[in-house]
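FAQ

Q: What does a record look like?
A: Structure on top, sequence underneath. For example:
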């Protein structure tokens, strides 16, 4: 009787409809449980070679998913509600997370680890990421002045940073130009109705992460009136790939925030606002 229940705890055949849960399962050494992934998955790269792609972001091949006989599907946000509903009607267990802040990302990571019986390893990895964030914030505290940062998630219309990005900007040493919009969970509610307001707020740094297409700093700099912005005058326009910063999982908490931090600290050195004791470590 005992041998019949010798399997590891939790779901054994998992479909991940977004990248962050796929990356997290690989980091936990549980990739053997994944039977299907999102077509947008690029982290880790090997997942694209090893796992069948069964979904986009707001659409999925339901028949293909069902053919994989998943015992759990991980999804993200209200944008995947229709996919989740279709799978539930077919009797599939679906867990949809809706993390929007750094704390909520950590909570999601712990919940997934616990579901797989990997609480200890999951907690160790979470605590390691948290220590790194504290170290970045400590290093950034040496800046004499924090740069104002405009983070553009989309260009037409302009959409500003989602909450976890805004929080990571703060940890990395900058101040989000549109903190009042960051608390809005939906992209449509973070649209900047009057682009001239970006000029008025005069960011020191502009970071673009246009989901699904390459950021074009020359096009941004050429927008009417933008020649008055400090970031344009000082050529402080940068891209962070959406897979590194707009994925509400391990990527944003590691590679994404590290790129933010490097950009900010380099700005500080150029401005002569990074004390030697801080600059020496970077």
């Amino acid at each position: 009787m005992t041998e019949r229940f010798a399997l590891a705890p939790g779901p054994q055949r998992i479909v991940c409809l977004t990248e962050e849960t796929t990356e997290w399962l690989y980091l936990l050494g549980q990739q053997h449980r994944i039977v299907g992934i999102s077509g947008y998955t690029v982290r880790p790269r090997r997942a694209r070679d090893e796992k069948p792609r069964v979904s986009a972001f707001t659409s999925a091949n339901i028949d293909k998913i069902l053919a994989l006989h998943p015992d759990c599907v991980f999804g993200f946000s209200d944008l995947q509600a229709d996919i989740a509903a279709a799978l539930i009607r077919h009797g599939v267990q679906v867990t949809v997370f809706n993390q929007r802040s750094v704390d909520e990302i950590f909570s999601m990571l712990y919940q997934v680890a616990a579901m797989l019986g990997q609480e200890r390893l999951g907690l160790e990895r979470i605590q390691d990421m948290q220590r790194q964030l504290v170290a970045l914030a400590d290093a950034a505290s040496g800046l004499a002045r924090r740069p104002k940062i405009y983070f553009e998630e989309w260009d037409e219309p302009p959409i500003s940073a989602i909450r976890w990005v805004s929080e990571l900007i703060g940890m990395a040493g900058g101040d989000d130009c549109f903190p009042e919009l960051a608390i809005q969970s939906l992209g449509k509610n973070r649209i900047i109705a009057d682009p001239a307001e970006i000029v008025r707020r005069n960011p020191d740094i502009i970071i673009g992460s246009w989901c699904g297409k390459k950021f074009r700093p020359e096009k941004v700099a050429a927008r009417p009136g933008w020649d008055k912005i400090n970031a344009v005058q000082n050529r402080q326009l940068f891209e962070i790939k959406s897979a590194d910063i707009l994925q509400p999982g391990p990527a944003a908490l590691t590679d994404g925030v590290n790129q933010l931090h490097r950009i900010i600290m380099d700005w500080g050195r150029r401005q002569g606002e990074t004390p030697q004791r801080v600059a020496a470590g970077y």
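Q: Is there anything notable about this one?
A: The beta strands are 14-16, 34-38, 53-55, 72-76, 94-97, 148-155, 158-160, 175-176, 205-208, 237-239.
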